[in-house]
Structures are given as C-alpha cells and as structure tokens.
Amino acid sequence: MPSRYLAFRFKYRLGYAAGLFLSIAGLALLMSDNQAAWHSPGPANHGHEQLPCSDCHREAEGSARQQIKANLKHQLGLRKHEAYFQFRPVSNAQCLACHDRPNDPHLVHRFNEPRFAETRAKLHPETCASCHVEHRGVRITLQNAEFCQSCHEDFSLKEDPISIPHQTLAQQQRWETCLGCHDYHGNHRMDVPTEVDNAIAPAIIGDYFNGAASPYPGPVIQKAKEKPDES
Question: Where do the Tetrahaem cytochrome domain residues begin and end (predicted)?
Fold first, then answer.
C-alpha cells in the first residue's frame, strides 16, 4: 500500500478523532453549571441570581440514548407520548419547593376550580410562570395590574371600610389601585390603608415588579426557602 495513501488515512483518522474530541469537550463545557450563562436564555429573575440551574431544571428519566430512541418512536407513531430530553419542564412543583405558602391568598391550585375557567383561558393563573416567566431579569413579568379584573370585576362589600368603595373603584376601572393596598401573595404583615390616596403609587409598584425593594410596609412573614425541597 503506497505510503502516501497511508499518510492520508492517518491524517484523516487523526482529524476525525480531534473533531470528535473537541465536539464532546465543547458540549461538556457548554452544559457545565459553571458556564450556565452561555446557554441561559436570559438573566435570572430577581432573587434567583445565585441559584444553581439544577434547583429548577431537574434531569429527565433515562439516558440521552433512551430519550432519543423514545422520541424517534414517537415520530414514527410507535409511541403515544414523546419523552423529555435531558431535563423535565419546569412546573409549579419546582416553584413551590421554595415558595410554598399555605396562607397565600392566591394559591395557584385554587385557580383550577371550575369557577375560574374563564380566567384560566385568559391568564392561566393556575401556573406560577403566568406571572413569573423566568430568565427575564425582573421579579414579575405580567405587569398589567388589570389582571385583578378577571376575578374581582363584580366585587363589593356591604360595609366597605375604604374611602372609595371597592365597587366604585371597579366601576371606574381603577384596577391599578389594587396592588397599592393589597400584597398579592400576602408576604407582609401589614394594615391595609383605608384612604385610597394613601395607596402605593402604581409607578412604585412597577419598580417593585422590575426588582426594586418591596414598598409594602410591615415585616415579611412568608419567605422563600434557601434550599428547595426535593421533588
């Protein structure tokens, strides 16, 4: 066999091996937790900056080979459901592993009740990510306070204690005032103001949504866990 041909085969195999090695090394580096910023879709939301990816992104069952094989079967009609690849989708379970609050006035599971069917179709309040889309670099992504209208449009109190009755505020479409008096998740022990003029200004609420310090008075009574529960 000519030496030129042998040299060519050697270089070919060497190049193939080098390319394979660099590809595997590059993929391993890219998927490393230390290089999360390289493959993250955006900055972590406020309060999540120091969390490792694995706190929210849990590995899917099976090896990569098994996951690929299962998805090929799904594409060929030999399997009913597709398989998760590498990681399971982030769900309420991962959020509640740190943010489970039994005294939350707006527990997400409550919105699965039949009476909230119309609201679910509009806003999906039964999922944490409907308001808190991750990797946006803010605290809250649904920044339209009019979402209160979806459930409280006909709200009224017989003996309303505030200066402008809730029913009047609703009729006037002043939904921006809701969060000026009410902490949505009840994280603070606070007295609700009775004078609407004393409510927190919408602009300040907007800053809070974007990551500014909480404007709500009183101590925080429902804090996120530093380490999530395993799920």
Answer: 46-153
